Amino acid sequence: MHSPARARLRPLILLPLLTLLAAGLTALPARAATVRYEAENATISQGVVEANHTGFSGTGFVNGDNVVGPYTEWTVNAPSAGTATLAIRYSNGTTSARTADVSVNGTVVSAARSFGTTANWNTWATSTLTATLNAGDNKIRVTSTNAGGNPNLDFLEATVADAPATEYQAEAATLSEASVATNHTGYTGTGFVDYVNAVGGYIEWSVSVADAGTHTLTFRYANGTAVTRPMDIAVNGSVAAAGVNFASTTNWDTWADGQVTVTLNAGVNTIRATGTSANGGPNVDRLSVSGSGGPDGQAPSVPASPRVTGTSASSISLAWNDSSDNVGVTGYKVYEGTTVVATSPTASATINGLTSGSTHSYTVTAVDAAGNESGHSATVTGTATGGTTGPTADQLLAKVTACSQISNGKYKTDSDVSTATVAVCEKTGAVFWKGDMDIDCDGVRTTQCNEDTDCCFQNETFCQTTSDGPLNAAQLAYMVVPSPSSTWDYRTKGIGCGTVVAIVYNGQVEYAVMGDTGPTGIIGEASYRTAADLGINPDPSNGGTDSGVTYIVFTGSGTKVSTIENHTQAVNLGRTLAQQFLNNN
Known about the structure:
This is Glycoside hydrolase family 75 protein. The protein has about 575 residues and is mainly β.
C-alpha cells in the first residue's frame, strides 16, 4: 500500500457525549506515579546477578562483592523536578546490618544508611527515603560502606509526581482549511493555527494517555472579534461537545483557555476541533491534556538481548528486542557510559565515526511519548573493524546525472499529483530513479506500524521472510517498486524480492532490499526503518520527504540476498555491488 508523505487521518472510533466545562484558566493537578526499576537491569560494579534465593522480583537480584565500594546504579526518569519517594527492596541474611551510601546524581542523600537483617536470604524488606530529583534522567546509586558489602538488592521503586499536563502544539497537528501563522504575539511553540473563515475547518491531534478515564482538554486560543466562535470537539470520531463557544479575548494578541471534559481510551486518541460558523474557529495555540489517569508515568520495559549485528572500520551496528510500554515505545537511546551516542525509533542503530580497531561497550534504554525512560539494558561490546564502508553518496550520485530512460512514460510521486515526472533510467548494472520517499508501514504489526498509526495499514507484504511471514517495516530497511504495468515491469531486469538497492539522501547511503510492491502509477516509497535510518520522518501519517531521494537498484546476477530479513547481508552485498557500479560506469 502506497502511503502518501502528506498527513492522513486515522480510522475513528465512537465515544459517548460528555460534559462541557466553562472556559477559564484552571490549575491542573499532578498525581503520583510509581515505577519499578529491577536491580538486574541496573548498572552494576563489583557484583553479579543471581537467582539462588527465593522471593525476588523480576529475573534475579544483585549480589555485590563483600568489600567497601561495590554499587548498583539505576537511571530513574522524573516527568518534572520535585521530591520523590525511593523504596529499595533488599535482603540481608547475616546477623548484622549492612550500610551503604545512597546518592542522587552524584550527591549522597543518605550516608551510611543501615539495611537491617532480614532473618535469612529468602526474606525481603524495604528501605524507604525521600530525595529531590531533576526533571528527566536521574542516577540513583547504592554504594557499600562496610566490608560486608551491600545487602542483596532486588529493585528500586520511585514514586514521582507526574507533570501536570501534556501539551500538543496546534502547528504540529493535522490541519484542514486552516494554516500555521505567526502574525500575532504571545503564542507558544513555533506558531499558532488560523482557521479560514468558513464552516468545517479543523485541527486534529493524536494524543496518548496512560489510563482510560475522564480527562480535561484545555484549548489555548485567541478570538479578536466581538462574537464567539463555536467549535465541535470530537474524540475518536464522535462529537463529545457540540458548539463549544470560544468567547472574545479583546484582540488577537490576548490568549485564553477553554476547557472540555471527555473520556479517553488508554493509548492513542484523536481529538478534533472543528469550526461550525462562517467565521471559522478561533486562533488556536495548543492543546493540553490532563485529568483522571493523567499523563503517562510508566516507563517502558528494559530492552532485552542487545547484540552486535555488523561492524565496519568506522561503525558498529546494534540490534535488540523491542521493549513494551503501557502506551507505546517511541524510540531508543544507545549509551556509551553516560553519553548518548545514538537514538533510533526502531530496535536497532548504527554508531558511526569510530576509529578502526577501537572497542566500545554500549547499553540501550527505551523511551515513550511522555519522556519516560527505561532502565539500561545489559552491556554489549563490539570492535570497529572489518569490511569497507563502500562508495560515498557523492560518488554514487556522480554516476546517475544523466538518464537513459527505459520506462514507457513516467510515474507520479503521489496519487493526487496531477503530473507524472519520474522516469526509470538505466546504467550498467543498475536501474535508478529520483524522486520522493513515502512511508510503507505494512507487514508485521509493531508499535510504529499498525492500524492506529497508519490509516492504510495492511498486515502483509509482497515479499516474505525465509519463514514465509510478512516483513517488518519498523525493523527492516526495504523499498517498494511499482507493480508491473505497461509503464515498466521490474521483472524484466531480474529485480525481485531481496534485490539490493542503494538509497541516497542528504549525503547518506542506505542499503536496502526490494520488499514490497505498490500502485502501478506511483513510484518512491520505502519502509519505516529505511526512512528512520536516513533521518527522514518515518511516521506513516505525516512523514516522508517530497524530493531529494535517489534509488539505485542493482541488476544482474548475484544482486539478491539469501535471507531477505537480514539487513547486514544487504549492507555487505550492497557495498560490493555499489563499488562494481562505480567501476563499470
